[in-house]
Structures are given as C-alpha cells and as structure tokens.
Design goal:
This protein is of the alpha+beta class. The protein has one domain (7-153): Aminopeptidase, CATH 3.40.630. Helix 3 (94-108) links the parallel strand 4 and strand 5 (113-119). The mean pLDDT is 88. The protein is built from 4 helices and 7 strands; from the N terminus they run βααβββαβαββ. The chain starts with 6 loop residues before the first strand and ends in a 6-residue tail after the last strand. The chain has helices at residues 18-21, 30-41, 94-108, 123-131; strands spanning 7-12, 45-52, 55-63, 77-85, 113-119, 135-142, 145-153. A 7-stranded mixed β-sheet has the order 1-2-3-4-5-7-6, sandwiched between helices. The longest helix has 15 residues, at 94-108.
Amino acid sequence: MNEHNNLKIEKIDEDSFNTIKDLRDDIKDESQFFERIIKIKEKTDECYAVMFEDKAIAEVTVTLKSADATVAKEGLRIYISGLYVKKAYRNRNIATYLISYIVDTFTNYGYKEITVLVDRTNTAAVNLYKKMGFINERTYKEDDWIFDLLILKMKNTTK
C-alpha cells in the first residue's frame, strides 16, 4: 500500500455519509455526525475519505465558510479538521496522501491558504503538517491545553 495504487479518494456527500460513519471507533455521539451532515448540506463544509476495498480508512473535513475569517474565508482560506486514519492503516503515509490531495484540489480551485488547529501534544499531527510546509500562525492556550493554528500558503494558485 506504500504506492497508494489501491486507494482512492472520494468526496463524501449527504447520501454517502454513512461510508465514514463507522470509521471512528472512538466517537459514539450521533449528534456529531448529524452536525457534520448539516454542514455538508449547507455547503460550508466538505468531507473527503480515503477508500480501500470500498471501505473508508481515513477522512478529513474541509471548512469553506466560517464566521471566523482566521479559520476559513470563502475563496481564500480553507480550514481542515478531523483528520483521522483508522488504526490498522497508520504509518503508511495515508494522511500525507489525503492532505496532499486536499492541497492540490483546493489550489486548483484558487484557494491561497489552508489552516489547521493542532493540539501541540499531538506530535504525529504536528510533524505531518510541518513536513508538508505548514507554519505556526498563532498559538491558543485554554486551561492546560495549547493549540497551534498552522497555515500553509499555497503556490501556483489559479485565481
């Protein structure tokens, strides 16, 4: 699977959302899924999944519109969240494959920036995004948590 030949990335819509519903073993709260479906219907968010043998093994959410322009601004900046790779498929560059797809796709759509909020203690995520060229734009502290807002300035935008 190193070559990713047997993988494909699909844009998830409200009809295909059940494809990713069982992906996360750790989330049991149905309301989180309903909230995501509503955002997909309203076209403020998009969801993409990596498929292997017709099953979702990874996913990410892309926010296109937000009241907070620091996070997302339509036509300029997208925000990625909820990147998740099923445990059995980790350490195979699947997250890199998926984020690279998002970067390429939204560069072609004319977006200029991608942001992501990362828990500083999540070293795997921090390393992934830094390896891909994201830099720290801002740090948030809340109680004992420290989050970094990372940004990627995309090249060769078409707009």
